[in-house]
Amino acid sequence: MKVLVAEPDRPIWEGEASRVFLPLEGGNVWVLEHHAPMVGILKEGEIVIESGTQERIKVGRGIVKVRDNEVDILVR
After folding, report:
1. Domains: count for the chain
2. Start-end of H helices in 1-76
3. N or C: where does the chain have the smaller number of CB atoms within 10 Å of the terminal CB?
4. Is 9 part of a structural domain of the chain?
5. In a domain, 73, yes or no
6. Sign of the CA dihedral running 64, 65, 66, 71
7. 32 found inside a domain
8. How far apart are CA 5 and CA 45, in angstroms?
9. Which pLDDT score is estimated for 65?
10. SS3 annotation, 32-76
11. Dihedral angle over CA of 66, 36, 20, 47, nearest 10
12. By residue range, what is the domain housing residue 53?
């Protein structure tokens, strides 16, 4: 699936991933390929992106949108 992690003024990480861990306000979630569409509020924590290797990105609050095998994460 295609993943984009961005701040309002620049991308932080962009690429393909097999799964993404998100620290959400309502509870943590792993997003896998073909995940159901969703929108969530990120809490401060760490996003984990698995794409053959594992990327860990510390983030502040933000929002996430999952749709059509794409994960868009906007953080500050």
Report:
1. 1
2. none
3. C
4. yes
5. no
6. negative
7. yes
8. 14
9. 98
10. ECCCCCEEEEECCEEEEEECCCEEEEEECCEEEEEECCEEEEEEC
11. 50
12. 2-64
Q: Is the dihedral of CA 18, 73, 22, 57 positive or negative?
A: positive
Assess contact for 67 and 37: CB atoms under 8 A: yes
Q: Is the pLDDT of residue 9 over 90?
A: yes
The partner residues of 27 in beta bridges, in order of sequence, read 24
pLDDT digits (tens, 9 = 90+) for 11-53: 999 999 999 999 999 999 999 999 999 999 999 999 999 999 9
> Does residue 6 fall inside a structural domain?
yes
- How many other C-beta atoms are found inside a 10 Å radius of the C-beta of residue 33? 10
Can you read off the two tokens belonging to residue 44?
A: 């401060």
Arithmetic mean of pLDDT, 53-63: 96
